[in-house]
Write a structure and sequence with these properties.
Helices cover 47% and strands 19% of the residues. With 482 residues, the chain is of the alpha/beta class. Strand 4 and strand 5 form a beta hairpin. Helix 5 (168-176) packs antiparallel against helix 6 (185-196) and helix 16 (427-448) runs antiparallel to helix 17. The strands form five sheets. Strands 3-2-1-12-13-7 form a six-stranded parallel β-sheet. Strands 5-4-6-8 form a four-stranded antiparallel β-sheet. The protein has a three-stranded antiparallel β-sheet with strand order 9-11-10. The structure holds 5'-O-[(L-methionyl)-sulphamoyl]adenosine. 5'-O-[(L-methionyl)-sulphamoyl]adenosine binds next to strand 1, helix 1, helix 7 and strand 12.
Length: 482
């Protein structure tokens, strides 16, 4: 049978520091979409990975007193450990320092050079090492890069240039007519206005950065780290740089990221693909940005919550839930441990946890419950919520999708309070009422599978269907109060 494919990517994260909550957010978001599409029968490839080359990583390794390779190997282990802790179901993990990736990058550079898209010139301009990106005066606030609070350096060197300027108009058209979708739509507008300013050619080589892919046509320089990094989206699904042989998962259905790297992903990245005549990704989605207690999260400012701390405090599923419910569609959000704990207690310990415990306690007093007809109203409500959740997930409104599930939980609470099964003396009637509540609980668990898979699994283990009955086991507390 022909199965539709779904290819989703996260950015490859810089390994100069270990992953923080922002990285965890994107990765959990992608995981939810991957799990959702797998459950719906698609052939899914979910790619994440790490960005290991360039001046910034070279510096970080130096500060740690390690060779870049060794430093990156260690960081690789840290990233993998955290994604495992968070139950991330990625199908691939790309390292940009891997031989296969480097070979493909080198091959692409050669192709671009031979086809005249790379030429020798002089680059003169501002560059922020924090972003590893070129800056113009209009990008700066008080002369500094607003993201890194650092003055960019003036770079002037003989360098190989990529003809980015040739692609601005074409990109505008492609984005305008949604051949490459940018969502939310507000971001599409922003990018279109940015492209209207025109694109300049960029330098794609570095003379004094050793830690990178050397240019096949001039070994004295290495490739600009972003050019190297973008190609991960192709090499991560097995591409070796051969234009006649693209991987069958290509192109990505969704590329997830935040606004910090949206512009480069809608200028250099698609321009490279156009130059190579490779089809473009279908959608680029920019989610919101977290601040912590009102401040940018930054290791140097001491303003971070590490993902493993969050998982320790709230459990892995608790952490996944809190991350996802903290950002509305496309909007930024501010976190604080107090707010997270409040939300945890209200939605997980009380909401879902309490609802599950009440039903399982009542059900386990009976043990086996015969499958009977479902009450019409309840059936209708379940269908309605399933429909809304699906719609929201397809539009990448995952916070909103989760909120729908919580609507079903409140509805279930209402049913429980209305029917008061603990007061019913007639066993047959009691079993019928409980059957309906158990189906409600199972429907909640079904909807939660992509979001908090371990919890969904625990609920299913407590309400197992076998033949014409459902066996109820009480199970432990899902989310202890904090
Ligand atoms: N290495 C580049 C990406 C290359 S992709 C070809 C890079 N790495 S990064 O480590 O800085 O990761 C940036 C991404 O991490 C953001 O786009 C977003 O996905 C995630 N986040 C990092 N901080 C974040 C927040 N504070 N809030 C939400 N997401 C954030 O850029």
């Amino acid at each position: 049978m022909f199965k539709k494919k779904f290819y989703i990517t996260t950015p490859v994260y810089y390994v100069n520091a270990r992953p923080h909550l922002g990285h965890a957010y994107t990765t959990v978001f992608a995981d939810i979409l991957a799990r959702y599409h797998r459950l719906n029968g698609k052939r899914v490839f979910f790619l994440t990975g790490i960005d290991e080359h360039g001046a910034k990583i070279e510096e970080a390794a130096k500060r740690a007193g390690k060779e870049p390779k060794k430093f990156c190997d260690e960081q690789n282990a840290v990233f993998k450990k955290i994604w495992k802790l968070f139950n991330i179901s990625n199908d691939g993990f790309i390292r940009t320092s891997s031989d296969s990736h480097k070979k493909a990058v080198s091959r692409v550079l050669k192709t671009l050079f031979n086809n005249g898209f790379i030429y020798k010139g002089v680059y003169e301009g501002l560059y922020c090492e924090g972003c590893e990106q070129y800056k113009s005066e209009r990008d700066l606030v008080d002369g500094k890069c607003p993201d890194h609070q650092k003055e960019p350096v003036l770079m002037k060197e003989e360098s190989y240039m990529f003809k980015l300027s040739a692609f601005g108009e074409k990109l505008k058209k492609i984005i305008n007519n949604d051949k490459l979708k940018i969502r939310p739509l507000g971001k599409k507008k922003e990018i279109l206005s940015f492209l209207s300013g025109g694109l300049n050619d960029i330098s794609i080589s570095r003379k004094n950065v050793k830690w990178g892919v050397s240019l096949p046509f001039d070994k004295s320089s290495t490739a600009y780290v972003w050019l190297d990094a973008f190609l991960n989206y192709l090499t991560g699904i097995g591409w070796n740089g051969d234009l006649k042989n693209l991987p069958n998962f290509w192109p990505p259905d969704v590329q997830l990221m935040a606004k910090d790297i949206l512009r480069v992903h809608l200028s250099i990245w698609p321009a490279l693909l156009l130059a190579l005549k490779i089809s473009l990704p279908k959608m680029i989605f920019s989610h919101g940005f977290f601040t912590l207690n009102g401040w940018k999260m930054s290791k140097s400012l001491g303003n971070v919550i590490w993902p493993e701390e969050l998982a320790e405090k709230f459990g892995v599923d608790g952490a996944r839930y809190l991350l996802i419910s903290s950002l509305a569609y496309g909007a930024d959000g501010d976190l604080s441990l107090e707010k997270l704990a409040e939300k945890y207690n209200a939605d997980l310990a009380n909401g879902l946890g309490n609802f599950t415990a009440r039903i399982l306690t009542l059900g386990s007093q009976i043990g086996k419950i015969k499958i009977s007809g479902l009450n019409k109203n309840i059936g209708k409500k379940i269908k309605e919520i399933q429909k809304n959740t699906d719609k929201n997930i397809k539009e990448l409104k995952i916070q909103e999708a989760l909120a729908e599930v919580w609507r079903l939980i409140s509805f279930g609470d209402g049913e429980l309070n209305k029917t008061e099964p603990w007061k019913i003396e007639d066993t047959e009637r009691k079993v019928r009422v409980l059957f309906n509540l158990i189906i409600l609980l199972r429907s909640v668990a079904e909807l939660l599978k992509p979001f908090i898979p371990q919890t969904a699994e625990k609920i299913f283990r407590s309400v197992k269907i076998s033949g014409k009955t459902i066996n109820i086991k009480k199970g432990g507390i899902l989310f202890p109060r904090i």
